[in-house]
Design goal:
The protein contains 9 helices and 31 strands. It starts with a helix and ends with a helix. The strands form 7 sheets. A 5-stranded antiparallel beta sheet has the order 3-2-1-4-5. The protein has a 5-stranded mixed β-barrel with strand order 12-13-14-16-15. It is α+β, with helices and mostly antiparallel strands and about 550 residues long.
């Protein structure tokens, strides 16, 4: 029989004892703070007992496993946090072991150049928390998507690939980007799509977005711009008139920059340009039919068919109604007859006239009246320069202040006349082209030449050029009264301040600057300035007289040049 007493009581050498101590306790010291594998031995109360090769099983709190509670005999990863006693009992952590493994897996993935998969867990200040299989990383809001995100919470729960931008091994945290992954995908898609892009190519696309200036079209991974002017040969007020989001359309590549990936598209280019035949289809002077397509403040556009539109300027709408909005004369979709006034093939414009299809009241008046006829009518409006007198239901004639009286040529004479007053006058001039009828009241009386002209400062007078020099004009005002106009007073425009433009016998009109015995200092420049100032005021209150600013100024200047 073997003698065990020697083995049991034989004292150990110092070397043997140290080896046994290292085996028993040194291993424990080296394992603390590290992850290792262990076998589940038992589940007691709120703990899972795990054998990790120590003297006694370690404990893992049950809540760390969540819903995935291990079974006895399972081999799991645990992290040795600390020892509670010298007998080898240890506190273990399943969560930390999983996190450490996840961190190592993440480091390996980044080192290999791959992008880990993760799930966006929650919205935090400045961004999101992303679970990368156990490593919780931070994703800034700017890195969440290549497009602006209106609702930040809409991304919570999204599982996707993420690009690791930065890792901190000491704190075991990372910064990631989802946008970088999308950028790679978009670049790859664009590269593939660019294979189908060529100048002049006709391809199919989907309307992606509509703006005031055009339409963005998805060409299968890359966007092109279809400008509003390239939608149709017709004038388009807004792209929504022709297309809608999601609509499939065919477009032509009309411009292409391979470096910037900017693509300009055209839809009208798929059809024949109607302007190629416009000059043959229409002739100036033709009367044609059309439909009013739109009305603006300055006129009306008319659809002439075959994609051609023309413009009726407001001045060509009516012979007499010059101050009304075009919508008061025409309405949208109205079928009308118009006259072709002009064709500009280069600018792709056709000028139309509507009033030309109606009788010209100015010509009718000229055909039924003669210069010298006596007419009667009520005063429709008064201005600083004269009176507007109603001659027909649509036409007014003008009596200039200088034609009110032979010897009283100032505003005092004008004050004798009031709006609505019935007066009689003589027709001095009928000009259908300028749409102007000039009347005179003083011409109803004779023998005025024997009367001395009475003038005062500010009055408007008319005379005849009797002498011309470099510096001034001498004006004969009648009855031995002379007027002097200096060169600088000839016009508001410096280019017109030239006495050589006048000759003896010319009739001029000017305002009185000063009176010294029989010499009257005159100024055409002052008269022009006063005319313009007053004409603006009169224009605002003359809407019911049939007159416009051009009528008022034109009549005044015409009288001044007689």
């Amino acid at each position: 029989m073997k003698d065990l007493s020697k083995e049991l009581f034989n004292p150990l050498s110092g070397e043997d004892f140290g080896q046994m101590f290292t085996q028993s306790y040194g291993t424990q010291e080296t394992l603390q703070g590290y992850a290792t594998k262990g076998t589940v031995k038992d589940i007691v109360s709120d703990f899972v007992l795990v054998d990790v090769g120590l003297k006694s099983e370690g404990r893992v709190q049950m809540r760390e496993f969540g819903a995935s509670v291990p079974k006895v005999g399972d081999i799991i990863d645990v992290f040795i946090e600390r020892y509670e006693s010298r007998d080898g009992s240890a506190v273990l952590s399943y969560t930390k072991a999983r996190a450490e493994k996840a961190w190592k897996d993440l480091e390996k993935a980044v080192a290999e150049g791959s992008d880990p998969e993760g799930t966006i867990m929650e919205v935090v200040r400045g961004g999101y928390t992303v679970d990368l299989g156990g490593v919780f990383a931070f994703m800034p809001s700017s890195q969440a998507d290549h497009r602006p995100i209106r609702d930040a919470k809409s991304l919570v729960g999204v599982t996707d690939k993420f690009r690791v931008l930065k890792m901190d091994a000491l704190r075991t945290n990372a910064i990631v980007s989802r946008r970088a992954i999308q950028a790679d995908s978009i670049a790859a898609t664009q590269k593939e799509a660019m294979k189908n892009i060529a100048l002049g190519a006709v391809i199919s696309g989907t309307v992606k977005n509509i703006t005031d200036y055009g339409v963005f079209v998805d060409l299968g991974g890359i966007d092109g711009l279809l400008h509003v002017t390239d939608l149709s040969w017709k004038r388009v007020n807004h792209p929504r008139e022709l297309v809608k989001v999601g609509q499939k359309i065919n477009v032509k590549i009309i411009q292409f920059d391979p470096e910037s990936h900017r693509i300009s598209l055209g839809m009208k280019q798929l059809e024949e340009d109607p302007w190629d035949t416009a000059s043959r289809a229409f002739n100036v002077g033709d009367t044609v039919s059309g439909k009013v397509s739109s009305i603006t403040d300055y006129g009306a556009f008319v659809d002439l068919g075959n994609g051609i539109e023309g413009l009726i300027h407001m001045s060509e709408l009516s012979w007499t109604n010059k101050n009304v909005h075009p919508s008061k004369i025409l309405s949208s979709a109205q079928e009308i007859q118009i006259v072709i006034l002009g064709i500009d093939q280069d600018k792709r414009r056709i000028s139309l006239g509507y009033k030309q299809t109606q009788k010209n009241p100015w010509k009718e008046f000229a055909e039924s009246h003669n210069v010298g006829d006596i007419v009667t009518g009520p005063i429709k409006n008064t201005t600083e320069f004269g009176l507007f007198v109603e001659l027909t239901s649509t036409l007014d004639g003008m009596v200039h202040i200088s034609d009110l009286s032979w010897d009283k040529l100032d505003e005092e004479e004008l004050k004798k006349f009031v709006r609505g007053q019935e007066i009689t006058a003589k027709i001095l001039d009928i000009n259908p082209e300028k749409e102007r009828i000039t009347l005179g009241i003083k011409q109803l009386t004779e023998g005025s030449d024997s009367k001395r002209v009475s003038v005062k400062k500010g009055a408007i007078v008319r005379g005849t050029v009797s002498e011309v020099s470099i510096d001034e004009l001498v004006i004969d005002l009648g009855n031995s009264v002379r007027g002097i106009i200096r060169r600088t007073d000839l016009s508001m425009n410096k280019d017109e301040q030239n006495t050589s433009k006048y000759k003896v016998g010319d009739s001029v009109e000017a305002s009185v600057v000063s009176v010294e015995e029989d010499i009257v200092k005159l100024s055409i420049r002052s008269l022009q300035a006063a005319m313009e100032k007053q004409a603006v005021k009169d224009y605002a209150k003359s809407s019911d007289s049939g007159a416009v600013l051009g009528d008022i100024l034109g009549a005044a200047f015409d009288n001044a040049s007689k």
